[in-house]
Amino acid sequence: MSLPSPSSSSSSSPSSPSSTEPFRLTFTTPSLRNTVLADASDTFYYDISTPEWAPCDTNIRRLPVPGSARESQSRFEQVARVRLHHGRAVGLAMYGWEWGDVNKFVWEARPQAQAETEKGPGGEESGWEFEDDDWNVFRWEVVGQRLELRRVRKDSGRSSANEPPVATFHRHKRFMMVGTVSQPATLDVDPAALGSLDSIVVALLIVESFRRH
């Protein structure tokens, strides 16, 4: 399901991002399994929860986006459910559809050399690819301490480090590495890619489960 851009719903909205400035969303807690992800004006607002009585089932919901057919409703919409095994994503159900193998939504990317990225066993880049609802292919790549999302060119099956990332995920930071959180985790998204935000968020949570478990 493609989401409308917030700029299309109200040209005078102070929350509408410029055409060049990344759209920032912030995670409210260090845990990506129990958190809220939202921008400063709550134009995009995701509730991510893994209840104690169902620790293997992460539920991802979103409030209706301004400009959508359900804007007048205040109820959360189901985006996805992620099934976990020892903390690692193994199953996925998008928009209430049937459960499927998570690796059919996010799969390990074919290696490509890139000096600044984290290297795999063969000295190659670590990355994970997925498709949005419009069959656009994206790749999450590890770059230093962050994750960068890039479009995959259909002609070559490769992403380009020379192009700005579609999105960037920064993990939270703590005082002295072990103290209280000094900087929350953030997700910066190119405004042109906001229509794919559901897929981007779900893929990010799955990739982080792969990396941490």
Q: What report would you give on this structure?
A:
Residues 8-17 and 114-124 have low confidence and may be disordered. Strand 5 and strand 6 (88-94) form a beta hairpin. The two termini are 29 Å apart. The chain has one domain (28-212). The longest helix has 16 residues, at 197-212. The chain has two helices and 15 strands. The chain is 9% helix and 34% strand. By secondary structure, the protein is mainly beta. The chain has helices at residues 6-9, 197-212; strands spanning 23-27, 35-38, 45-49, 57-62, 77-85, 88-94, 100-101, 106-108, 127-131, 137-143, 146-151, 167-170, 173-174, 181-183, 186-189. The strands form two sheets. Strands 7-6-5-4-3-2-1-15-12-11-10-9-8 form a 13-stranded antiparallel beta sheet, with helices on one face. It is globular and about 45 Å long.
